Amino acid sequence: KKAVIGVTGLATMGRNLARNLARHGHAVAVHNRTPARTKALVTEYGHEGVFLPAETPEEFVRSLERPRRIVIMVKAGAATDAVIQEFAPLLEPGDMIVDGGNAHFEDTRRRERELRERGIHFVGTGISGGEEGALNGPSIMPGGSPESYEALGPLLESIAAKVEGVPCCTHVGPDGAGHFVKMVHNGIEYADMQLIAEAYDLLRHGLGMPPAEIAEVFRSWNNGRLESYLIEITAEVLAHTDPATGRPFVDVVVDQAEQKGTGRWTVQTALDLGVPVSGIAEAVFARSLSGSPRLREAARRLPGPSRFKLEQRFADDVEQALYASKIVAYAQGFNQIQAASDEYGWGIDLGAMATIWRGGCIIRARFLDRIRAAYAADPRTPTLLTDDHFAGALGDAQDSWRTVVSISAQLGIPTPGFATALAYYDALRAERLPAALTQAQRDFFGAHTYRRVDREGSFHTRWELPDRPEVGA
Ligand code: NDP
């Protein structure tokens, strides 16, 4: 008997993905550079389904039915290239390599191009949901050719998370599209987590609430429009008491947030595309700042504000600010996907992305249904902010949002996520931006020219001449 699909790379993710496939009745070939992992998988979980263990790449490839489907789940970067080098010569035209690691989408574009020349389909696939998702149903974002999706789609959809019976898996677009969307998903996750952290900080240090009480507030928020996996786990973390010290668990964790790099990639790419994703950028910077102990130690002696009392209803204002800022952060991320889709000709269906993020992944939330509805109503909307539901929510939230941002400044509690989201909202809706002055300065020192509000064409003012004549350029 041959396997319908194979998984190579059997660390946490690969092992769980192979088990997920086997549990769904698919015969899976399994391989790992170090054979001990393969043996361990079959010994521990062999009873869950049909596993065909292979010690060598040759044996692995032989055990697969054709066209072959191989999922690579190894460390992203050089390891992925090494594994491709090893397997590609053993494959034939029409075979498919699925890279389920967290690859940079530019690497995926390059690998897809190189393998296409050899007739092999390379399917860069974002897989979200971590260890648990890989086993019980992740959100899956495959790129690559439409033909490869025909052969892989049913398999991948069978193991993906389901929401209301709809699998959290769809063909995202050609070459790097799947990994790009996964990257922005992670960037949005950074922004969402930062906003939640700011809300916590305001309740804790603004209102002076203890973590256990804040957990209750988050629990109540999770019964409303903010319902999401991240709000749910936030309540769990805040309610947890450290068994060793009896202190709130959150207080015994070092306040330095680490990062593996997908948030940074999102921002770097957004800079190249010229898409303002300020919410994601602030979230990445906030983690960098937290991880700069020398800088923070040195700055600790700077004076803060004198204290003032807040009313309890401030918590409701924080909920409004959190929801409004979340709308902005997601709108920015979706704009980045739209821009890349235009730039690379991917034809990504933004509503479908919201649909496949509803389950399996870290940012799963009721909210994504709203985004799906917004794109259904207007697939080419320039921004989610103007969708009727979101515009209404922003309008209702804005007074509270402004209160929260100004009060946090007065309290000396940093809320870069809330503040940048509000600044973005106000900048987008501004009748006139001071960018006019910026452009005028550019013309002054660099003769970069400007356009006029009242006439077509581009112009330059001879700033160096006493009467500053304007010339058409
Ligand atoms: P790791 O990223 O820790 O990678 C370990 C695996 O890579 C092992 O199977 C290892 O083999 C293999 N490997 C490393 N270098 C080579 C090489 N040169 N040649 C062959 N194999 C090599 O494993 P994870 O399971 O954590 O993640 C797998 C992929 O999934 C990564 O790209 C990760 O970014 C991505 N991912 C991870 C998530 C998570 O929550 N962990 C979530 C979503 C995606 P050996 O046993 O022989 O050392």
UniProtKB/TrEMBL annotation:
Signal peptide: none annotated. This is 6-phosphogluconate dehydrogenase, decarboxylating. InterPro entries: 6-PGluconate_DH-like_C_sf, 6PGD_dom2, 6PGDH_C, 6PGDH_Gnd/GntZ, 6PGDH_NADP-bd, 6PGdom_BS, NAD(P)-bd_dom_sf, Pgluconate_DH. It catalyses: 6-phospho-D-gluconate + NADP(+) = D-ribulose 5-phosphate + CO2 + NADPH. Residues 178-464 form the 6-phosphogluconate dehydrogenase C-terminal domain. SMART domains: 6PGD. It is an enzyme of class 1 (oxidoreductase). NADP(+) binds at residues 9-14, 32-34, 74-76, 102. Belongs to the 6-phosphogluconate dehydrogenase family. Homodimer. Pfam families: 6PGD, NAD_binding_2. The lineage of its organism: Bacteria, Bacillati, Actinomycetota, Actinomycetes, Streptosporangiales. Catalyzes the oxidative decarboxylation of 6-phosphogluconate to ribulose 5-phosphate and CO(2), with concomitant reduction of NADP to NADPH.
